[in-house]
TrEMBL record:
<dbReference type="InterPro" id="IPR000719">
    <property type="entry name" value="Prot_kinase_dom"/>
</dbReference>
<dbReference type="InterPro" id="IPR008271">
    <property type="entry name" value="Ser/Thr_kinase_AS"/>
</dbReference>
<protein>
    <recommendedName>
        <fullName>Protein kinase domain-containing protein</fullName>
    </recommendedName>
</protein>
<dbReference type="InterPro" id="IPR011009">
    <property type="entry name" value="Kinase-like_dom_sf"/>
</dbReference>
<dbReference type="GO" id="GO:0005634">
    <property type="term" value="C:nucleus"/>
</dbReference>
<keyword id="KW-0067">ATP-binding</keyword>
<feature type="domain" description="Protein kinase">
    <location>
        <begin position="5"/>
        <end position="357"/>
    </location>
</feature>
<dbReference type="GO" id="GO:0007346">
    <property type="term" value="P:regulation of mitotic cell cycle"/>
</dbReference>
<comment type="similarity">
    <text>Belongs to the protein kinase superfamily. CMGC Ser/Thr protein kinase family. CDC2/CDKX subfamily.</text>
</comment>
<dbReference type="GO" id="GO:0004674">
    <property type="term" value="F:protein serine/threonine kinase activity"/>
</dbReference>
<dbReference type="GO" id="GO:0005524">
    <property type="term" value="F:ATP binding"/>
</dbReference>
<keyword id="KW-0547">Nucleotide-binding</keyword>
<dbReference type="Pfam" id="PF00069">
    <property type="entry name" value="Pkinase"/>
</dbReference>
<dbReference type="InterPro" id="IPR050108">
    <property type="entry name" value="CDK"/>
</dbReference>
Length: 357
């Protein structure tokens, strides 16, 4: 830690990590320090493996993946062993950007008529103002980054707005989430995928997770795929595609909240993209089925082996709305691609490389 001045500033906290802003003593640009306690981590969290992975990913093809600048072991003030990753200081997450472009909906007699807002916007009380060309740029960068890490056999397992950061210039950084809505598309900051702390690497995640028996308690809330929610341990890159498609739906939603968010509990904040969480996986599963329709033997043949799914009664599920109503700001082709990424059957979802091909 003697490489940095004694003016470190706390930025954020993860389950097993803390992020600080730090100034190198050589006067170079400020950096972010990710500090973990490897001996206290619980699987699948593994910061040592994360550091090795990021070093291996640092190639000219990794422009949409965060770059680790350095990494070393040290001890904290109490003498406890810690691992420090030195990362570029990227202050703006997609969660913060979405929050900055999420504006309150004015009521019936306000300046904005409620007739111009969807029911989702009225329920949540928010309206999405993210520029469409910026949304497309983010989605393309996200899938480009995923295609690269998937080509290396890596499954990220926690794609969500708060794990997507931006490399911004002084021109497009601002106090409200780091994005100036007046920018032209050529000036949008580049999105990078961060936080590989629970990533799976082949062939068996350092001897801890066989490919056919992976940990299913991964991912975050409303971005978790049905396979994870039902405990199917043989999943692959498709769980990242599902989560990325959820991010895509959020980018083009009417209210800027996650597709499967509990809108009645949403506060519009930046955490996780601003959407309210559910009290149980079962409630989230119900929301997914209500949004996309009940799975069938044709739409999810792999699900026919899930005993709990086979005992569910779908007779009271409402007829799902056309998917375009959930992403009204998306061009037709983009809406179709996002919907394809949310197919129940992993075999039918496009790969990250195919998503924009």
């Amino acid at each position: 830690m003697n490489k940095f001045k004694n003016n470190k500033q706390f930025i954020a906290r993860g389950r097993f990590s803390r992020i600080y802003r730090a100034d190198p003593i050589d006067g170079s640009r400020a950096v972010a320090l990710k500090v973990t306690y490897p001996d206290d981590e619980r699987a699948p969290h593994n910061s040592r493996a994360e550091l090795k992975l990021l070093r291996n990913l640092a190639t000219p093809n990794s422009s949409n993946v965060i770059t680790v600048q350095d990494g070393f072991s040290d001890h904290d003030e109490d003498g406890e062993p810690i691992l420090i990753q030195v990362l570029p200081l990227l202050e703006y997450t997609l969660g913060a950007v979405l929050a900055a472009h999420r504006k309150p909906v004015v009521g019936l007699w306000g300046s904005e008529s409620s007739s111009s807002s969807s029911s989702a916007s009225l329920v949540s009380g928010w309206k999405n103002r993210l520029p469409g060309d910026f949304a497309l740029d983010i989605l393309q960068g996200l899938f480009s980054g995923l295609a690269y890490i998937h080509s290396q056999g890596i499954i990220h397992r926690d794609i969500k707005p708060d794990n997507l950061l931006f490399i911004a210039t002084d021109r497009n950084a601002s106090g409200g989430g780091g994005v100036d809505s007046s920018n032209s598309s050529s000036e949008w900051p580049r999105v990078v995928i961060a936080d590989f702390g629970i990533a799976w690497t082949p062939p068996d995640n350092h001897g801890k997770e066989p490919a056919q028996n992976k940990v299913t308690d991964v991912g975050t809330g409303v971005f978790r795929s049905p396979q994870l929610l039902f405990g199917q341990a043989s999943y692959g890159f498709d769980v990242d595609v599902w989560a990325a498609a959820c991010v895509g739906a959020q980018l083009y939603s009417i209210d800027g909240l996650p597709l499967f968010a509990n809108r009645e509990e949403s506060d519009g904040g930046s955490g996780g993209g601003g959407g309210g969480e559910y009290r149980s996986d079962l409630a989230l599963i119900a929301c997914i089925f209500e949004t996309l329709g009940a799975p069938t033997a044709d739409s999810w043949p792999e699900g026919q082996t899930i005993d709990s799914l086979m005992h569910m009664d779908f007779s009271r599920l409402p007829v799902p709305k056309p998917f375009s109503t959930f992403v009204p700001r998306a061009p037709k082709t983009i809406a179709q691609r996002i919907r394809a990424g949310l197919e129940y059957s992993p075999a039918v979802r496009p790969s990250s490389k195919q998503f924009f091909s």
